[in-house]
Amino acid sequence: MSELVVVKVGGSLLNWPELPIQLNQFLDRMTSTQILLIAGGGKAADLVRDFDRIHMLGEAHAHILALHSLDLTAHSLAAVLPRLQVVEFVTQLDDLWAKGEIPLLSPRLFLGEDEASANPLPHRWEVTTDSIAARVAVRLHARELILLKSISVEPGTSRIEAARLGLVDPFFPEAAAQFARVLFKNLREPDSPVVQLA
User: Fold this and answer.
1) How confident is the model at residue 125 (pLDDT cuts 50, 70, 90)?
2) How many domains would you assign to the chain?
3) How far is CA 181 from the centre of its chain?
4) What pLDDT score does 97 carry?
5) CA gap 113, 149 in Å, rounded
6) Any bridge partners for residue 195, and if so which?
7) How far apart are CA 75 and CA 62, in angstroms?
8) What is the pLDDT of residue 140?
9) What pLDDT, on a 0 to 100 scale, did the predictor assign at position 2?
10) Cα separation of 124 and 59, whole Å?
């Protein structure tokens, strides 16, 4: 079984002063030696959404700009957690894991290569870093995907219900359909349980 665990750090956490401490503590409790982080878009992606709404860029063009915003959030997260190393290519992962480092994927180039796959992610606002993290986890045959959020979810919640409640993006149930183990954690409440999405 793969050791890889993909951890998506929600964009809503990026403006939280406690994030460096709480994320470090969460990572310290993980037992896998192969961890890959992905940062959400947060306010940077919201800026692109606003620009699209005002100037009617169209979802395809806005999608490209939104992916560039993930470069910014990845490097911003790494700036406050020096133990993270931003990578753009999955070929860099093994070297970092061998050195005991934690890679943080800026997914723009990965998704560009994924465009040649049989079923790439749609270029729509319904596809956010939740679905991107699921896509990365599926393509890299990860053991599990952990979504770190600013909100809690009830045990037994399905992925479809989580999408209906706005806890994950609308496309997420499809993006994660073939993935067995998706976990959900409210990082703002360190004592909250880790819940598996059905």
Assistant:
1) confident
2) 1
3) 15
4) 95
5) 28
6) 184
7) 20
8) 95
9) 74
10) 6
What CATH number did the domain enclosing 167 receive? 3.40.1160.10
Q: What would the two tokens of residue 35 be? A: 């961890």
159: tokens are 């992925």
Owner of token pair 């009617």: 56
Rounded CA gap, 174 and 65, in Å? Answer: 23
Whole-number Å distance between alpha carbons of 146 and 151: 14
Give ∠ CA 67-108-86 in degrees, rounded to 5. 110
Residue 95, domain extent: 5-196
Distances 99 to 9, 31, 85, 127, 158 between C-alpha atoms, Å: 22, 16, 11, 33, 37
Mean pLDDT of 114-130: 90
Q: Which residues are CB-neighbours of 79 under 8 A, at least 6 positions away? A: none
pLDDT for the residue 118: 80
**Residue 15: exposure state from Cβ atoms within 10 A (0-12, 13-18, ≥19):** exposed
The pLDDT tens digits of the residues spanning 1-24 come to 579 999 999 999 999 999 999 999
User: Is the confidence at residue 99, as pLDDT, over 90?
Assistant: yes
d(CA 103, CA 85): 5
Confidence at residue 64, expressed as pLDDT on a 0 to 100 scale: 86
Tally the C-alpha atoms within 13 A of residue 118's C-alpha that lie toward its C-beta: 1
Gap between the Cα atoms of 11 and 67, Å rounded: 13
For residue 153 the two structure tokens come to 């979810």
Pairing of strands 182-186, 195-196: antiparallel
- Mean pLDDT value of segment 80-93: 96
